[in-house]
Amino acid sequence: MNRFAILRVVAKLLIPAIMLFALYVQFHGDFGPGGGFQAGVIFASAFILYALLFGVVTARKVAPPRLINTTLALGVLVYAGTGFAALLRGGQYLDYSVLAHDAVHGQHLGISLIEFGVFMTVSSAMITIFFVFAGQDVDEGQD
Amino acid sequence: MAVTALALARVRNLFAVVMMSGIFSLTAAALYVVQDAVDVAFTEAAVGAGIATVLGLATLAVTRSEAEKKVRAVAFGPLLLVIVTGAALIYGTLDMPDYGDPAAPIHGHVAPRYLADSEKETGVPNVVTSVLASYRGYDTLGETTVILTAACGVLMLLGRNRRQKRNAPTRDSAA
Amino acid sequence: MMLLPGLFNYWLVVVLMMIGFYVVIAQGNLVKKLFGLNIFQVAVFVFYISMGKIEDGTAPILVDGEPVYTNPLPSVLILTAIVVGIATLALGLALAVRIRNAFGTMEEDEIDAAEADPS
């Protein structure tokens, strides 16, 4: 367990920073470069770093596949649901202007919502893919 | 950048191929910054240099393959085909507008409208974000669905329950 | 930029694309083929991005004043394409792993031989 002690300590310091940075990229995406796609990938890379250092089995406990699979589908659902919410409020599909009293506010809200949906799907997809690939190795080792 | 790509094509050690691919992506990201596409550069650096490299390494770890088995000479048939195609493409570029030309046809169509109206209509100063999420919302919805589908595909191909699935009842195959 | 002819960016793209193409058609290893496809893909990305560039332009994040902005549309298209690209790359690698599990090799000709002679 004491192998890679330095790496583990550094990673423990880095992982919260990476996650915070991902959230910053997510919510600052309106003003600077960034958005759901990038934030999702960065957020997933925090999990991947954890899985690399502490083993996939441990990482699966932190992020159980059931939860990840749920957020994977939920992300697309949020995105599509935003579109339907716009429909229900009398606009066209994915027309965010009707979501709030003011068209500009509605647009802002809609963009944030769908970026969040993208974020959820992308991050869980990357985590899933990595876990599945790395999990192969564990499974074969047990055979 | 072309040098890295060439090295990638020639190196036979697969580990080196994956590393070269990471370098290649970083170079590409730097190129995007030079060409003012900061969002794209950001994505390329995170995705291409980060995730793709890790995925490639994971694949190599799983398959325990280090090098291609055969030493191949340069294959002349494919090389000829590539040269002919490349020459045709370069001939095609002769009609293209110059690099950085503001009068190129691509800049005349919808982009000026996005640049002029997006701040008024969406209140978001980053035009890339507003176009991505608002004006082209359908596209992005489609892309998100593609990612979902790809993740499902990977899960189906390599999912953990593969071996038990034959005996287990069919209900839990959703994982 | 004055030293280079105006079409230089397209030529770089063509060279990159052809390297990727060559790797895809001439190499036998499936993983290497996939990364060759990746090069091809990046070449297309560079093509789009370099078309959107305007001389003396700046990144399309609106600020006060009236600077020249680079075309945002290619950025948007390529942004999503990159993420889809990694998803398809992952799918391809997964297929390669499965093929290797089934045939015990990732070399194309050995797979062909194994298919022709199932013993």
Describe it.
The complex is a heterotrimer of chains A (143), B (175) and C (119). Chain A has 143 residues and is mainly α. Chain A has one domain. Chain A is built from five helices and no strands. Chain A is elongated, with a radius of gyration of 18 Å. The relative contact order of chain A is 0.15. The mean pLDDT of chain A is 79. By secondary structure, chain B is mainly alpha-helical. Among the domains of chain B are: 1-67, no CATH class; 110-162, no CATH class. Chain B is 67% helix and 0% strand. Chain B is extended. Chain B starts with a helix and ends in a 17-residue tail after the last helix. Chain C is mainly α and 119 residues long. Chain C has one domain (8-110): Helix Hairpins, CATH 1.10.287. Chain C has helices spanning 8-26, 30-52, 72-103, 108-116. In chain C, helix 1 (8-26) packs antiparallel against helix 2 (30-52) and helix 2 (30-52) runs antiparallel to helix 3 (72-103). The radius of gyration of chain C is 20 Å and the shape is elongated. The model of chain C has no long low-confidence stretch (mean pLDDT 77). Chains in contact: A-B, A-C, B-C. Chains A and B meet through helix 2, helix 4 and helix 5 of A and helix 3, helix 5, helix 6 and helix 7 of B.
